[in-house]
Amino acid sequence: MLLEHGYSHYKAAVEAVRADLENLGLYEVVRDAVTRSEMLSRESKYVEAEMLVLEANRKLSGASGVEGDLRHIYKAANDK
Fold first, then answer.
1. In this predicted model, what pLDDT tens digit does every residue of 70-79 receive, in sequence order?
2. Percent of the chain with pLDDT over 90
3. Assuming Cys at both sites, which of 2, 17, 22, 68 could form a disulfide with 6, CB separation 3.0 to 4.6 Å?
4. Contact indicator for 46, 6 with CB cutoff of 8 Å
5. Alpha carbon distance 23, 1 (integer Å)
6. Cα separations in angstroms, 61 against 5, 15, 24, 26, 77
7. What is the spatial distance between Cα 54 and Cα 73, in angstroms, rounded to a whole number?
């Protein structure tokens, strides 16, 4: 099901935010991660596919500033 419907949805979602991703310099990174992840999934290399997407997500979190916000929230929650 994921290979039939999921990846086409993810690709459309990437295209929908293309301008924002381009502003962050990450459009190609995210697009390629989704495309390569699909290819790896079709080869039953699910862990590798997941790692590609996670790495793209880390780069996106860092570039968008969310990573710093999440670290702050995590630190505050664990300092109690």
1. 666 767 777 7
2. 59
3. 2
4. no
5. 32
6. 26, 18, 10, 11, 19
7. 20
